[in-house]
Amino acid sequence: MTLSVTALALVACGSQKSEQSTDKAASKTQTSYPLTIKNFKKGAASKEDGVVSWPESTQTFTQAPKKVVVTTRPMAELLLHLGLEESIAGVGAVFGDKDTSVEKEFDKLKNLGESYISQETALSVDPDFVFGRGDLFEKSEWGVGTVESLNEMNIPTYIMKTSTSGGTFDSIYEDIDHLGQIFDVKTKADSFKAELKEREAKLKADVKSAKKAQTFSLIFSNDPDKVTGYALTGDAFSLSLFKMVGLKEAYDVPSGEVSTEAVIEADPDVLIIPKWGESDAAQKMADSLYTNEKVSGLKAVKNKQIYVVDYNYMWGYSYQSLAGFEAFAKELYPELAK
Predict the structure, then answer these.
(1) CATH of the domain at 71
(2) pTM of the model
(3) What would the 3-class secondary structure string for the chain be?
């Protein structure tokens, strides 16, 4: 009898320890509210180089948001990968290449505008959270309002670190971690993050085997008579993407417009033209450069290295940039497409 009682006691003790272990494991994946996250607000632009500062802003969530306004398509698609379709109240700036893997879910969302939305539009769906790209947190006709103005209405915000001046593609992983906490979806966040890291590692390995040192210039114009460049000096995210595929900007100047003469002097190996939405203007611009006498001596023109890249891949500041640059790498290095 004593042995039986002892055995039962051991089983009960083991069961209790197992339950405690399970509880501890669950607590690591579940968010405890209220949750406080350190994030950003938009600061002033530097007079020297025009780069915007991003002071710290502390945001508190009493529960997982249920009515989210998202500033752009790429940010909404990120939330869809975390299973948050039912939490999105509306999306602005619905343009650019689609992520077909979440296209059906995206098409069910409320479209707040084909271009950037105002604070009035953002507030029209009574949001309990505003999320997205940093430079759109502005009180203007193209901004959803400042972080301060939204917080005053008890609406918490989250600016993707990728979209701040110091953010790179690696910042996406920290952003996904924070979203996993905010929405209490850590398991899905961890899974999606692991998938992206695996793809990023493969892209870098593929490019390393194929690349040669090359320079690029961004042509930020669709006017064949105005072949001006644009320096990405203050945009660490975009520069990190080009570095991922073995490209370095052709000049070291402050952010902003670069004259045609400066582009010619730099003589980049590659020219990049951003495509906005469904317009074919970017492709027409690319085609026109091959017959433009002003730039006929450029290496990029002579070697037929002019590429059109979707706007959202460079300035969507989200995971879709990886897909865009995976495809771009195969154009740059055709051997990777085999």
Answers:
(1) 3.40.50.1980
(2) 0.87
(3) CHHHHHHHHHHHHHHHHHHHHHHHHHHHHCCCCCEEEEEECCCCECCCCCCECCCEEEEEECCCCCCEEECCHHHHHHHHHCCCHHHEEEECCCCCCCCHHHHHHHHCCCECCCCCCCHHHHHCCCCCEEEECHHHCCCCCCCCCCHHHHHHCCCCEEECHHHCCCCCCCHHHHHHHHHHHHCCCHHHHHHHHHHHHHHHHHHHHHHHHHCCCEEEEEECCCCCCCCCEEECCCCHHHHHHHHHCCEEECCCCCCEEECHHHHHHHCCCEEEEEECCCCCHHHHHHHHHCCCHHHCCCHHHHCCCEEEEEHHHHHCCCCHHHHHHHHHHHHHCHHHHC
